[in-house]
Write a structure and sequence with these properties.
This protein is mainly alpha-helical. It contains 20 helices and no strands. 67% of the residues lie in helices and 0% in strands. Helix 5 packs antiparallel against helix 6 and helix 10 packs parallel to helix 12. The longest helix is centred in the middle third of the chain and has 19 residues. The N and C termini lie far apart (69 Å).
Length: 330
């Protein structure tokens, strides 16, 4: 039996768990194989289609050599909302501008909130490409307009509006900065989280003081987003607070702070990360190794972030700071 036939047989057999190994056969399909999958797909129970699509996304995250793009596109037409939403998420790495129009349609008119939210999030890839001028401005313009309208739509759900703001975060327009500020001032804490997320995506140092302040938030989710944003901004003045978050009560916040140190760079960050590797915090060792790799890469390219500190200047700045508890309380 050929691998593709084995995979489809497994998917149809409710007496067996969905085989992650067999799903690899769905990578890089030619036209004839796509038709075979299309014919069999809707005969597969919905819960198994959901499981399969989730597994495909997870496989692709761990292995850049697989290509499940044709299966994700097939999932876009699925009757099940979970499958559609997961398939949209799987298309994050796709940079084909032809996807912009269907994603806008999903965001604006799909009956399922999770699908609309996923589509808004997926449009972020094209905002990123637009900011880098990797796609023509006229192709990105409809998506920008639709995302702004979605964020402003009062009767749209919070989750969809949040994803729209996060997608817009990549853009350096003053108007988008005003929307991020609006989101940050929103009474809903979830929207505020998305605003801080968008601040990091913006790579705009104007948000540095805000994201640094949010490192002290009582909400671990906000501390996590703020640490990630400080890393995205490579915001050296937040170094001390990021170091303090390595001992945060929340492990996700700890991991985010370690990642951010690798982005900020400098001798102090390097020494702290080496200390993490020598510590008993085994759950942070892999993150510390990755952060050190990133730090050394940036160092080799003489890139120390938006503050443009070199090692000597950054170290002098750190040594000039008062790291005692009294200063923390202030």
């Amino acid at each position: 039996m050929k691998p593709l036939e084995r995979a489809l047989k497994n998917l149809a057999d409710e007496s067996e768990p969905v085989s992650i190994y067999a799903l690899h056969a769905l990578s890089g399909l030619d036209r004839a194989d796509v038709e075979k999958v299309r014919s069999a797909w809707l005969t597969i129970p919905a819960d198994r289609r959901q499981t399969a699509m989730h597994h495909l996304v997870e496989i692709a995250e761990d292995n850049f050599e697989v290509d499940f793009g044709t299966i994700y596109r097939l999932g876009l037409t699925d009757q099940d909302a979970e499958v559609r939403a997961t398939a949209i998420g799987g298309l994050w790495e796709e940079d084909d501008p032809a996807l912009i129009t269907p994603l806008i349609k999903f965001m604006q008119s799909d009956e399922a909130e999770k699908v609309r939210a996923a589509a808004a999030g997926a449009l972020g890839r094209f905002m990123y490409d637009a900011e880098l001028e990797e796609i023509p401005a006229q192709k990105a313009a409809p998506a920008i307009k639709a995302l702004k309208a979605t964020f402003a739509k009062a009767d749209e759900s919070l989750e969809v509006r949040r994803r729209a703001l996060e997608a817009l975060g990549y853009l350096g327009y003053d108007e988008v900065g005003a929307l991020i500020q609006q989101g940050y001032q929103d009474a809903n804490e979830r929207m505020k989280l998305s605003a801080v997320f968008a601040m990091g995506r913006s790579l705009d140092e104007r948000w540095g003081d805000i994201v640094q302040t949010e490192l002290d938030s009582p909400d671990p989710e906000m501390r996590y987003e703020a640490a990630r944003a400080c890393g995205e901004l490579e915001y050296a003045p937040a170094l001390r607070r990021l170091i303090g978050l390595i001992d945060d009560v929340d492990e996700d916040v700890q991991r985010a702070s370690v990642w951010a140190l690798g982005q900020v760079g400098g001798d102090t960050a390097r020494n702290v990360l080496m200390g993490v590797l020598d510590s008993d915090a085994v759950h942070l060792h892999e993150e510390a190794e990755d952060a050190l790799d990133e730090l050394e890469f940036k160092s080799g390219n003489l890139n120390f972030g938006i503050m443009d500190f070199d090692d000597e200047d950054e170290e002098e700045w750190v040594l000039d700071q008062d790291f005692d508890d009294e200063d923390d309380d202030e």
